[in-house]
Design brief:
By secondary structure, the chain is α+β, with helices and mostly antiparallel strands. It is 44% helix and 17% strand. It folds into two domains: 121 residues, Phosphorylase Kinase, domain 1 (2-Layer Sandwich), CATH 3.30.200; 190 residues, Alpha-Beta Complex (Aminoglycoside 3'-phosphotransferase, Chain: A, domain 2), CATH 3.90.1200.10. Helix 5 crosses helix 11.
Amino acid sequence: MPSTGDWRAAGAAQLDDAARVLGSVFGTVPGQGPVISRRPWPFEGTFDAEVVTCRTGTGDVRRVYCKHGPTIDGTRHAAYGHRGGLSREAAVYSYVLEPMGVSAARCVGFRHDDLTDADWLVLEFLEGATPLLESRRSRSLDRAAAWLGSFHGATEGLWPDLLLSGIPFRDAEWYQGWMDRTAGWAGVLHLRYPWLAAACRREDLYEPLLTAPHSVVHGEFSPANVMLRDGEVYPVDWESAALAPGELDVAFFTLGWPSRLRRRVESAYVRRRWPGGPPATFEAALRAARIHACFRVLGDSPTGPSANDARTIFKILHSLV
């Protein structure tokens, strides 16, 4: 068991990391370190996260939200390229969110700390914001869907200019890969779901996504990844962003919801994105996106989701295919 001295040494080393990185972002005042105080972010995530109060090189005091950790290349968290770590998230802030001026935390800086081989993403701290997951007002879901509709509408057609930004494009090989993994890992579940093997070979299940209009999608748009402040919607955790049909976000957002609530939130999305009514391709694209959302969950790991979640997902998938 580590001694008290070991823990103190680890804490001091971490403090030095923060001081070094934040000093490179904000500058320093001679004789004073940039870190005034820090506290861990209370919600669990892939990366270490904390709220840091810092002193800038001009003497101003600022509060920022820092995420940091090693790159995820080759790790399970990458989910076969679905997630791109802090570098992809930084690219979304730099090339999409800030130029568009949408409601989002401002990216203060992105650094790779060579001494610890860790990425650091420094964001504006959203004072007073609360997670959508904790909201007791169901209409907050409608506001989140409306934000999504506006965002997809605004980024539709931008994707050719973003191909070199580090934000990936989703193609047929991508969709088929999730189906192949689901089929390969199902094992004895093929006996319980005899329709699954054939479904995993059906290219027509994702073909509508290949021809639907493409936008910038969040990739994991869920109530856990949306913050609310003063009636405004602030999506966070953009490391799964991609260039793909916006219907993918809608499908992931509403996966497993009661049909009445799901349809209401889908309507809020459609009204904002297409005030004059959705295109004729929308329903087919949304159905294909809901199918992909199921494969995305089932094909993520050989262990799969929990037994209860798996039954729910297979039930949804069977009803769609």
